[in-house]
Structure formats: C-alpha cells, structure tokens
Amino acid sequence: MAQIAPTTALDETVRAGHATTLLMIPGPTPVSNEVLAAAARPILSHSDPAFRAAVGETLGFLRQVFDAPGAQPLVVGGSGTLAMEIALANLIEPGERVLILETGVFGRRFQEIARRNGAEIRVETAPLGQPIDPEQVRRALREFHPKVLTITHVDTSTGVRVDLPELCHLGREAGALVVVDGVCSIGGEEFHGDAWGVDVALTASQKALGAPPGLAIVTVGPRARAVREARKTPFPGYFTDFANWLPVMESYEGGVPGYFGTPAVSTLMSLHTAMLALIAEGLPVRYRRHERLSRAFKAGVAAIGLESVAAPTASAHTLTVARYPAGVGDELVDAIEAEGVTVARGIHPELRGRALRVGHMGSIGTAEILVTLGAIERALRRLGRPVVLGAGLTAAQHEL
Ligand SMILES: Cc1ncc(COP(=O)(O)O)c(C=O)c1O
Q1: CA-to-CA distance for 87 and 82, rounded, in angstroms?
Q2: pLDDT tens digits, residue range 278-293?
Q3: Cystine design at 82: which of 78, 126, 248, 277 (Cβ 3.0–4.6 Å)?
C-alpha cells in the first residue's frame, strides 16, 4: 500500500506532541495560556497608563499574598537569588551577625550573601528531612545575638517546610530582624507576613505564583526599612538597594510611574494576569488545593515504593522529594521523561543520584498529579523494577 506523506501542518503537530512533556519540576512551573498571552501583547512603555495600572494592582495583590499590609512590596527583573540578595544585604553592615537556619541547600545561599557583605555568620542545620528544632534555635539566638535571622520556609532540595510562625516568634523575641525565603512556598503555602513577625519576605515569579520566570519579589517591612535608612556604612549594592526601588514602587501604587531601572514589562504583565487568577481563586481555596494535591501525590509515590525525604510532620505542599527505590538511580528521571513528564533530580549533596523532586504548585491540578504518577509507574516498569501498575494512581485517587 502506498505511504501517504503527512502534510507539513500535521507533521509539526505530531512533532510538537512528542517534544512536549508535562513540566513537573519545582520551578519554573507551567503557566496558564492567559498568563502566557499577557506577555505576548505589544511592548508597553513603562509609563503607559495600562502598565502603570497593572503594576500598581500587582503590588497590592502581592501585599495580600504575603499578608503583609504594613510592608512595601518591590518587583524587579531577576530570579529568587536576586530577591535573597536584596532582602538580606540591605540589613547587614560589616561585622554584624547573621544566624542562618538551614534545612537544605538554599540556606547556604544566604550564608554566601551574608559572607560577601562582611557579616559574622552562624549556621544551625537540621538533620536531613527534619524541620529545625526550636530549642536549637533558641540556644543559638541566646548565644549569638544575631542582628538578622534567616529562615527558608520550604527548602526545595529536601521538601521540608519549617514551622514558620514559631521560628519567626523566636527571632522577634530575641530582637532579630527576620528574613524569610518563601521562593518555594508563597502562593502555595499559608503565609501571614505581618502577623508572624516577618520583616522581609521574598519569592520569585516562577513557582507557586504561577507566572513565568524572570521576576524577583521582596516585601520590606517598616523595621527593615528603618534599619537600611539608619546604616552607618554606605551600602555597596546599587541595583540591590532598597532605597533605589522602594520609592519607585510607592510611586506606581500611587498611580504615577517611577523609574530606577527599566522594568521587565512583558513578564510583569504575565505576573499581573497570574495574580488576578490567584486572587480570583482565593488564598484559602488555593492553599487547600495545594494541600490536597500534595497529599494525593505523596500517597501515590509511597504506594509505588518511593519514600519521601521530608518527615510527614514537616513536608511541604508545594513539592515532593522522594528517594528512588533500591538499585535505581537518575535513569528513573530519564525514563519518566520518556513517558512524557519532566521531573527533577536531587540537588542536595546527600540526595544526588538518590532522589527525584516533583513540583506540584502554581496552576497544577488533579490531572497533572495523576499523569505524573502514571508516568512514574510506567518508567519503573520499563526499567524492569517490580511495580503494580495503578498502585500509585489508586492511592492518590483515594486521597482525592
Ligand atoms: C527555596 C529557594 N530559594 C531560592 C531559590 C533560588 O531561586 P532562583 O533559582 O529563582 O534564583 C530557589 C530556587 O529553586 C529555591 O527553591
């Protein structure tokens, strides 16, 4: 029988179908078509009334998501690491003390930022997969008297979520400024910046907020702002200086465009659309969605035979970090990819080659959870591992 050559259009569709996998890494996360389309409109001037209105509204929405009515949000082009640097560097002068709570690799970034800004550093580390012991933190605060306490709300290398209200309370009680890395939590995990006593919180656009990568987001509370204003030594940062950005953000919120550096207009339009969706969903509903999907996914991977790294009492709702079954390495991640789903390898030094990381935050729903569990089951089967097809799906379905 004669072969019928596919038309070009069909050929492209087929190729796209094969090339596109479901993105389930812990950031960047998939975003809705509306969010993508918002960036696809003609480039706006940063003083265009439409842009001004979108930025002003976005800053107001961020204040709601961070639940920090007393803080000033700022958004600049960059990633979460820039947000960490902006958040911490403004607050420390050479020789001042920073206490870093470490539940995975992201605490180490704060350590490096503090070191480069001349701080004296103490690090308190939790055992792998465990939250940090409040007694250990209390002791460190008592002995070290830090000016700043840094906390990673959810560490993306371990999947551990700490008891943020408790740790913030301890920091405040000891007179420290509290800086929280919420890159893998804010928008997906409950967060009450002002009520919990957070001085500076930060995230980035590409995770639980459901926007594309490209924006660093920081909220600056009044105590932190006063500390920056009262610095005795000049702040060596320029792009990272609160003093350069906060007036610009206030200006936008007041309806007047400001300028320090050209804003990432297209990505900001996407963030605005993502925030409209987030506010329409409602924060309590959004937190419950993340909690439910996480519970289902974790039950599914457990039924397949993958053990979660984070202790059940300290496990994040935004992602799952799970150990490979005995005798399996990173080839499992490649096999899952071949089954149509992109997940991430372990990045913690003790988990490299031993664990995978799956993000379930932002715009993720039930469908993505079930598709991912199915792909893990088929991947294990292809690798010749004993797996009951449907076991993970069944466990997840029960939770859903
Ligand atoms: C908890 C946490 N903090 C900071 C970062 C750094 O963010 P970025 O990669 O956007 O610079 C990440 C990135 O995954 C993260 O998960």
Answers
A1: 8
A2: 999 999 999 999 999 9
A3: 78
With 0-12 / 13-18 / 19 or more C-beta atoms within 10 angstroms meaning exposed / middle / buried, residue 45 is exposed
Share the mean pLDDT of the chain.
95
Range with the lowest mean pLDDT among 1-15, 89-103, 216-230, 240-254? 1-15
Q: What tokens appear for 134 in the block? A: 């409040």
Q: Domain spans of the chain?
A: 9-30+283-399, 33-279
In this predicted model, what pLDDT tens digit does every residue of 6-54 receive, in sequence order?
555 555 545 554 448 999 999 999 999 999 999 999 999 999 999 999 9
Which pair of tokens denotes residue 343? 């997940």
Tell the residue number behind the tokens 């599914």, with chain if given. Answer: 300
CA 156 / ligand 1 centre spacing (Å): 8
Atom of ligand 1 nearest to the CA of 27: 14
CATH number for the domain running over 9-30+283-399: 3.90.1150.10
Burial class (CB in 10 A: 0-12, 13-18, 19+), 276: middle
To test the pocket of ligand 1, the residue of 162, 184, 207, 345 to mutate (highest count of ligand atoms within 8 Å of its CB) is 184
User: Residue 64: what residue type?
Assistant: Q
User: pLDDT category, 257, cuts 50, 70, 90?
Assistant: confident
Q: Where would I find the H helices in 33-179? A: 33-38, 49-65, 80-89, 106-116, 134-144, 164-173
CA 343 – CA 257 distance, rounded (Å):
40
Instruction: Give the model confidence (pLDDT) of 330-365 as tens digits.
Output: 999 999 999 999 999 999 999 999 999 999 999 999
Distances from the Cα of 382 to the Cα of 187, 216, 331, angstroms: 36, 40, 11
Task: Tell me what pLDDT residue 361 has.
Answer: 98
How far, in Å, from the CA of 118 to the mean position of ligand 1? 23
